[in-house]
Amino acid sequence: MAGLIADLLRRKPVTQMVAESGSGELARSFGLFPLVMLGIGATIGTGVYFLLTETVPQAGPAVVWSFLIAGAVAGISALCYAEFAGAVPIAGSSYSYIYATLGELAAMIVGACLLLEYGVSAAAVAVGWSQYLNQLLDNVFGFRIPEQLANAPEAGGIINLPAVLLIALCALLLIRGATESVRANAIMTTLKLGVLGLFILIGATGWNSDNLAQFAPFGFSGVISVVGAIFFTFVGLDAVSTAGEEVRNPRRNLPLAVLITLLAVTATYIAVAIVAVAAQPVERFEGQKAGLAAILQDLTHASWPGTLIAAGAVLSIFSATLVTLYGQTRVLYAMGRDGLVPPIFHRVDPRTRTPIHNTLIVTASVALLAGLLPITFLAELTSIGTLVAFSIVAIGLIVLRRTAPELPRSFRVPGYPVTPVLSVVGCGWIILTLKSITIWAFLVWAALAVVVYFAYSRKHSRLADSRVG
Asked: Does residue 24 carry a pLDDT above 60?
């Protein structure tokens, strides 16, 4: 029994992690600006382009408060990530952080959370792509993809073919190389920020205070009911730290990128949300396709603003899908290096310096989810994976302060230890607002992770070799 407990709690030394990250398997090929674009690209996507039509009918204009609450909880968690990223600048994000602090079994569970967070997030984001692609095709060419081929079975279709196509395109780009993927994401993210800025400017001309008169028609319970679904849009904060082995000067750039991403994303979400609910009555949101594009077309009585928004959404969702898929492959890369998943996930192509087999397995799995499942269920599953990971990272930070106080840190969480405790409380509170089916689905997923750990990971872990640790 003592040996079993020792196995479950065995930790991977930070010094070993940092030494492995310097092996050069992955190329350190980009700096701060592309890293910030990576975070913003992963975060700003379906949240503003799609979720408003799902959340405004439940919360009313007070959905702005829902975004604020989600942003506040994510912000507290981001501070914990920033300290970890500066102290442990390696691939794997919170999986690696927990392996260094809370032990192997906890790391396996967090790894499972991240696979849920990234894989399901990529699927959820891709699902929303077909709506704006159809809007763009209709405005420009007068053609729409048939509903049967643009929706999951539960939404009245056969398969969401555009979502599958999007993931296939992302797979091709990721296989070509990290530098190419990051550069493409930076271009797409810059363009989509410009398009959202255009929405704010044009949408503000249609500001109607009457639309805000009943600001919280469903009370505080309505505001809280959608926070869990919205929270998944903050997944990019974690995505930044998955690039720990491919960014230059990681101790400086990783914490900075996390904090800049948080500020930029929260400000953008709130600005877009408040302009949208002021420009359009609440009842118009429900069931509305390509919501932001529809709002501008109604305001201007012209198709060109809606066409620009639809084009921006197509780019936005493309970049968000690309980055979340990138994040998942890097988490699996770190887990494969540690032996907790099969070594195929750690195998890197010597020419492209990318984990090609890993990428193909991930994208095929995500394409299946995106093609067949509806977005709302996927969004909540992503949220609970993110929330659990954020909570455990906050606990891990407290442990790291106690076990490795001498470790160099380029950033320190302000208000310690209150800040990480608030992160745990805030994330736990949002988890309790999620649907019971979502919580049960997560518990089943976590249980499967434990089964895999005892059936495979515990025996194949590199730390199982006494010579390693």
From this structure: no
